Amino acid sequence: MMRVLLVNPWAYDFTAFDLWSKPLGLLYLGAHLRQKGVQVVLLDCLSREDPDACAPQNAGPRRLREAGCGGYFQEILPKPAFFSSIPRHFRRFGIPRDRVLLRLKELEPPDVVFVTCGFTYWYPGAMVMGELLRRVFPEAFLVLGGIYSTLCPEHARNLGFDALVSVADPLAVAKALEELLGVRLGIHDYHDFFSLPPAFDLYPRLSYGVVLTSLGCPFSCSYCASRALFPSFFQRPPEEVAEEVQYLHERFGIRHIAFYDDALLVRAEEHFLPLAEALLRKNLPVVFHLPNGLHARYLTHEVARFLKRARFQTIRVSLETVSPEGQKKGSAKVTNPLFERAIAALKEAGFAPQDVEVYLLFGWPATEEEDVLASLAYVRNLGLSPRLALYAPTPGTEDYRVFFSEETEPLWHNKIAFLYRRGWHRLYERLRQERKW
Question: What is the mean pLDDT of residues 230-235?
């Protein structure tokens, strides 16, 4: 029997927080490999429920802790030379390195190890993990995949892995892995891919669950790499998603579930509304969270009512900027009148203003500081809670081609590093001190 180890490495960053964060692609891969008779083991260095995890120095806000989220244990590291001018500590987040090493030494040697890496600038964690794996399992075949290897394949080839999966779309990933392993996964379309629930049982304990009801996004925002990662837009049958939610609750006792979709409300009449109705019929004691921003243009009165009735608690709406010019540069997916109509629908449905958070892009090259200040004032005047989303340069986007095409070091994609590079850190710190968001 082939033995496979799945690894989600640490986060190497200035800041990190477990906001319903799970390596969903890795878990789907584990489910399909097991179905084909492969022995699968998971090592998630960012699992706060792992027996080897240590208590975080900062557990996070109470409302997020109650929803299953929380801070990571962190270790201060020497800063890479690229960050020498940034007056912040650079850290490793997750299970302590020495405990990870002991865990690896206790495992039966795997034949293949799959290492994922999410953010492009988190690659140091994957690099260090690769070095540990090579030392402990010299005979294992090491494969690197994930968003980093997809968006930065040339850079990823230098990390010393035996193979690289430089695609993110599930069908392309399945094809690449079949060629590497010689195992027929039987994933011919997206329905095949979603035919199995993710292998959440590989975790000893779960404080929340995550669900993906669609792949990709029909929009082409200048700052988002969704189209580069998932070229087509696919939505799962609503009843199938509701069954998965029921499975997560009944199998693991989960009471908090986050939706990972980039475009949950697109074609709401065929997708979200039937899903909400199915969830209401099941009447599960589960609260839902939407950490990704909702599209204001699809937030109708009917949608808002179903969000409230189906116990969607964390509601975030994407505005990005109040500047009409900035909105057009991004994708023209939202205007101020569309946004205000969406907020009116949420209020009418029973959501209190403090329950609604509004995403604003901070540091985006298409805007200036006065645009951010105007956007903050606009959101505050509506009685809502602004949430600054720090801009990060992302390969595969239109913005990256326009502003950063000469960059080759993924560490500069780090949102904190870019904040200092653009000179917006002073405004950011001032706004934090004044509690403007």
Answer: 95
